[in-house]
Amino acid sequence: MVEPLKIKHHSLTGRINLKLMHEAFRAVKRNKGKAGVDKVSIELYCNQLEQNLESLMRDLKKGTLQPRPGRRVYIEKGGGKRRPLGIPTVRDRVAQEVLRRLLSPLFEPLFHDDSHGFRPGRSCHSAMERLLETWRSGHRHVLDADISGFFDCIPHDVIMRGLTNVVADGNILRLVQKFLTAGILEDGVVQSATLGTPQGGVLSPLLANIALNFLDWHLDELGYRFVRYADDFVILCRTEHQAKEAHQAVQLFVEQLGLTLSPEKTHVTSFRKGFSFVGFDVTSHSVKMRAKSVEKYKDRIKELTVRSHNLDSKQIVKINAVVRGVARYFGTLFSRVMQQFGELDRWLRMRLRCMRTKRKRRTDNCRIKIKHLRRRGCTFLNDYRMHA
Known about the structure:
Elements: H1 18-31, H2 42-46, H3 49-62, E1 70-78, E2 81-87, H4 90-107, H5 124-136, E3 141-146, H6 150-153, H7 156-164, H8 170-180, E4 184-186, E5 189-191, H9 204-221, E6 225-229, E7 232-237, H10 240-256, E8 267-270, E9 275-277, E10 280-282, E11 287-289, H11 291-304, H12 313-330, H13 338-357, H14 364-367, H15 370-375, H16 381-384
Parallel strand pairs: 1-4
Antiparallel strand pairs: 1-2, 3-7, 3-8, 4-5, 6-7, 9-10, 10-11
């Protein structure tokens, strides 16, 4: 367990000023997002921006801010599953962004180098690169671990323990505690929060990293090589026996944090057998899009290429945005997706031709050639793929 620092950070409240408030608001505005339970959108909040930010700054400095419950929404995860989100009000999002900007620079130097989620200069790609680097050093066996309902089940005392190890400003600690216990509004009923940090708040990823920093350094003390992205992590070992020992050690420590490993999703495997990590299927031969990622891409394209719709310029812009996002994520130097992208590109062209002709016939492949689709502005996955 990480020991408290001898030198803690005081007087963070004194760093809250109008400049910081405006920076936080601009970050919230860039991220867009819908209104919370008060139905105040970003545009509406802008109408009296100076007054709103000054009022929020006073509440933050005095510690009198009372966060509203998050508004419950669900997003599709694929396979019929949905991920619950808690959307804070715009005012609360700005307040959370202020806290995040105050706290993140204090914790960033304390986080483990193998933690990659929601950190500056790090990404899913940097996590994959570290994973492959460790594999090439001879670590061929893997504990693929998953924490059951992490964001919904993480105990508040674990988060607060991590915070109090570094922060001695009582006002800031109380504000974070208020956000943790603000609850969720669903179907007109406020559900109180005694566990978890709702996904959807800008502060949640930082709080998750603070909590799991205990696990990171425990694994480091035990001598394990690992890569973690948020609550998704793998431990890499030289032998299967070491991986099984790691499974027992992680399960014991995670239980001490008040969490549990998912028995269905946690297993010992190897690069030869393959496993999934941050959306990729990883084996000793290749790194590709996992089947679930392919299905999510197809589902999104299907929504945009309904045959009864017109293939006009606005629709092409929307389709290209989806294609570009998927291509830039999966078409990396370390992945081998040319064949997958080729198959998906052929499938996309079929969908586009169906939109154009309002029917599905193979002869349309000759009538509407690829160059004709490109002239209309259509782009495809392999157009963006990086080449080694």
